[in-house]
Write a structure and sequence with these properties.
Oligomer: heterodimer
Number of helices of chain B: 10
Helix content of chain B: 25-40%
Largest interface: A-B, 28 and 27 residues
Order of helices and strands of chain A: HHHHHHHHHHHHHHHHHHHHHHHHH
Strand order of the largest sheet of chain B: 6-7-8-3-9-10
Helix content of chain A: over 70%
Chain lengths: 559, 259
């Protein structure tokens, strides 16, 4: 409900609005409604974290952003080098804002319903346009205010009034620059993609956003320490001259009594660039942009179907179709394989719930391998890597891939479409499940394994081959084993029920810790090649039989 | 008994999307109290016509007068006297019916209390009074459709455009809506009814317009349109839209199973 006072504040300008030809009461009702709708609609990112649909999102989100803002204050006081400190602050600020705006802006800007609900009513164009601009500003303000407030207060109290005012201007400039970048990115995306594809690409930005924020939380303190230790002089790096965050930091340094040629140069750019960007956005981009956006609303009119050039009666086979014939050995299993393969690529909500978790894996890896111990430098770590058994860690961490997939594969927003499994007649639903499992392993697990093995062979060579073999087999075994526990329902057949998931948190932790146990187990026997070989054989057979059992599951065993 | 001045007068209306001409010169006079059944195959230009008349598509060729005034120049003024009920999906379903209707009412610059009173009465009429403060994302398709219907009628418009207004409604609600349409027409209001449900169009409308490939191919009462006594509107439709092969296609359909 943060937007309410802002709308009240805007309405103080009623006489001015009237003079501009804007209908104040219509403006108010449009703003109120649009903000309420936005507030009550869960974003893809927030729904990832299991927030209930009913609660209003803005307070939760604002608190999260505010905490991030507090976190950012630390960047200001980690080093005596003012230019460096503020450069880091503004870089984080701009990156966060750009990513946040990219991921959620499309929801704000592209709402086809506005067209039907507002344009058919007696509302004049200027009221609609101004409502739109104000809605965007409120949206941006709801992010910028909690993000910048802690920093602003800190600068006011620590550095005084003039630096505080300059910092405030710097925040506005940084916001303008961010909006400019977002505008450019959207325009480029719209230029090169079909409108229908647009939202899919935005979904990938959302995934990147989640990963980067996650990485930020993990690495930031470490990076700050490294900066402190190494005493980096920013201006030694040519790239710093091209970073808007450095320009803004330059202006800030000037306000705090630091003056040299570089600072003057940066300060000039900090003042000029936002003005130029603002001019470009208003003058050129926004018009082009609105046209493109409204085109998206009419996308259905221009939708072209792909032309099928194959002769009549013969439809073209896709990669997964051909693959499914090789991999599966019953029509039911093929069905499970194909439906899983195709839907995991095409359902946006699945991608948003699952893909970011994949991004966490390399981050965890880098964190544990390179950052956990502060005493040793990065280069030293890298040098010592071949003497360690971290390859086991890399392989076992991949079990996360299957755990995440298996925990989520049965859930979907469009779960109702799964009625088809219930009304058709077949004896062994296990065949569908085994098809699903095969698709998940080949589509997601296999590429991850190949990547991991390539890295492992590069660093460690072929020496630990037997251990790598056992780890890989155990990984597959765990996957099949987990499928037994987690996937006894059809793919995409259950609602995304968060309450239930909460209750299962403990159980899920066990699923995640079990592979760690296996990893430790192997670590202790890794010296004894014969045992490793024997275990490989045993677990390969066990995997095979377990899989067969899974495939032959009957209706009574499904829950 | 037709009054002299039409409420809507369309002259040579044309509209193109890129190179594709969707409307190829439509001429129409529509009078008060008429219930127009506007029918045609998918992509014939039905919704384009409605979008132009409701002001959603401000760019078109030709002339349109509503209540004797040029639609292009007086769109804002004319929209106050027009009601529009879009297809079910188009609403902010995270709002409650009361919030949604308040929003729509205020866009028509109606007084808050008046909107609330009317909204409550209309919601009660459609048996939604117990749900008036629930968010609509939990509503069934029929319940949403009822709210949309109310939102189109709230400001007591003279001309009402209905796009598949009965979709998802139960039998009782269908009877209610049909009665409302009758009563509104008797009060001299004009109703523009777009639908694919021929049996309803046949019963509700007193004038049927059939559009095909952007042109009006039939215009008259149901009685005038049918060539034989026992003919249905469905049959008239398939004859006029050039789809005489429907029967042959059915054979082809059954042939598909023989392999």
């Amino acid at each position: 409900m943060v937007y309410k006072p802002i709308i009240k504040f805007i309405m103080l300008g009623t006489p001015l609005l009237k003079r501009l030809g804007i209908n104040p009461s219509q403006l108010k009702t449009i703003l109120w409604t649009k903000c309420t709708v936005e507030d009550r609609t869960p974003t893809s990112v927030s729904s990832r974290f299991g927030r209930s649909q009913k609660s209003s999102r803005s307070w939760n989100t604002n608190i999260v952003i505010f905490i991030f803002g507090v976190f950012m204050v630390f960047t200001l006081f980690t080093t005596q080098d003012t230019l460096l400190a503020f450069s880091i602050f503004f870089t984080v600020f701009i990156v966060y804002l750009v990513l946040n705006l990219i991921t959620n802006f499309s929801d704000v800007l592209i709402d086809v319903r506005d067209h039907y609900l507002i344009m058919t009513r007696p509302v004049n164009d200027i009221t609609v346009s101004v409502a739109r601009i104000l809605h965007i500003l409120i949206h941006i303000g709801q992010i910028v205010i909690p993000l910048a407030l802690p920093g602003l207060l800190a600068v006011f109290f620590k550095n005084g009034i003039l630096p505080g005012i300059i910092f405030f201007i710097g925040i506005i400039a940084a916001t303008t620059i961010s909006v400019f970048f977002v505008n450019i990115i959207y325009l480029v995306l719209l230029q090169f993609t079909r409108p229908e594809k647009f939202r899919d690409i935005i979904a990938y930005f959302q995934i990147a956003f989640v990963i980067i924020v996650f990485a930020g939380y993990n690495f930031f303190p470490k990076l700050i320490n490294m900066v402190k230790a190494n005493q980096v002089a920013l201006t030694n790096y040519t790239i710093s001259y091209f970073l808007p965050s450095v320009w803004l930091a330059g202006l800030q340094s000037l306000s705090m009594g630091i003056a040299n040629k570089n600072i003057y140069f940066f300060s000039t750019l900090a003042v000029l660039t936002p003005l130029i960007f603002l001019f470009i956005v208003v003058k050129f981009l926004s018009r082009n942009y609105n046209d493109k956006m409204s085109l998206m609303g009419a996308a259905s009119l221009n939708a072209k179907s792909k032309k099928d050039n194959s002769p009549k009666g013969v439809s073209k086979k896709s990669f997964e179709d051909t693959l499914s014939q090789w991999i599966t050995n019953s029509p039911l299993e093929q069905l499970g394989f194909l439906i899983t393969w195709k839907l995991t690529s095409r359902m946006r909500d699945f991608k948003l719930r699952v893909y970011p978790s994949f991004g966490f894996i390399p981050i965890y890896f880098i964190y544990f391998v390179f950052f956990l111990n502060d005493d040793v430098s990065f280069a030293q770590r890298w040098h010592q890597l071949p003497q360690t058994s971290y390859y086991l860690f890399i392989l076992y961490i991949l079990v996360f891939v299957s755990t995440i997939l298996l925990m989520r594969i049965t859930r979907s927003k469009k779960y109702q479409a799964a009625w088809i499994y219930q009304i058709t007649s077949y004896k062994k639903p296990g065949h569908i499940l085994s098809g699903t499992l095969k698709a998940l392993i080949i589509k997601f697990h296999l590429p991850a394994i190949v990547l991991a093995l390539a890295f492992i062979f590069y660093v460690w060579g072929l020496a630990p081959f037997m251990n790598i073999l056992l780890a890989t087999i155990l990984m597959l075994f765990s996957t099949v084993f987990l499928a037994h526990w987690l996937v006894k329902k059809f793919p995409f057949s259950q609602p995304v029920n968060r309450e239930e998931q909460k209750g299962k948190a403990f159980k899920n932790m066990l699923y995640l810790l079990a592979p760690a146990g296996l990893g430790y187990g192997q670590y202790f026997i890794s010296e004894y090649t014969a045992i490793v070989g024997l275990l490989s054989l045993i677990f390969a057979l066990a995997t095979y039989f377990l899989f067969r059992h899974y495939k032959n599951l009957e209706w009574s065993k499904l829950n | 008994m037709m009054p002299d001045s039409p409420v809507i007068r369309i002259k040579n209306l044309k509209k193109s999307y890129g190179e594709k001409e969707v409307l190829k010169g439509i001429d129409l006079d529509i009078y008060p109290g008429q219930v127009i059944g506007y029918i045609g195959p998918n992509g014939a230009g039905k919704s384009t016509t409605v979008k132009i008349l409701t002001g959603l598509l401000p760019e078109f060729d030709g002339d349109i007068e509503v209540f004797g005034k040029d639609l292009r120049k007086n769109a804002l003024q004319l929209k106050k006297r027009i009601g529009y009920v879009p297809e079910a999906a188009e609403m902010y379903d995270v709002l409650t019916p009361m919030e949604f209707l308040d929003f729509i009412g205020k866009l028509y610059e109606m007084d808050e209390n008046r909107v609330a009173k009317r909204a409550e009465r209309l919601l009660a009429f459609f048996e939604l009074d117990s749900n008036k403060n629930d968010r609509m994302d939990t509503f069934s398709k029929g319940m949403r459709q009822k709210v949309l219907l109310i939102s189109g009628l709230l400001h007591d418009p003279q001309i009402i455009f209905l796009d598949e207004p009965l979709s998802g409604l139960d039998a009782n609600a269908v009877i209610k809506v049909k009665n409302i349409i009758d009563r509104l027409a008797k009060e001299g209001k004009t109703i523009f009814y777009c639908s694919h449900m021929m049996d309803v169009v046949e019963k509700v409308s007193n004038r049927i317009l059939l559009i095909n490939h952007g042109e009006i191919v039939a215009d008259g009462t149901f009685e005038e349109l049918k060539q034989r006594d026992d003919e249905s509107l469905e049959r008239v439709f398939s004859n006029l839209t050039g789809n005489q092969q429907v029967e042959d296609n059915t054979d082809e359909f059954l042939q598909s199973f023989k392999d």
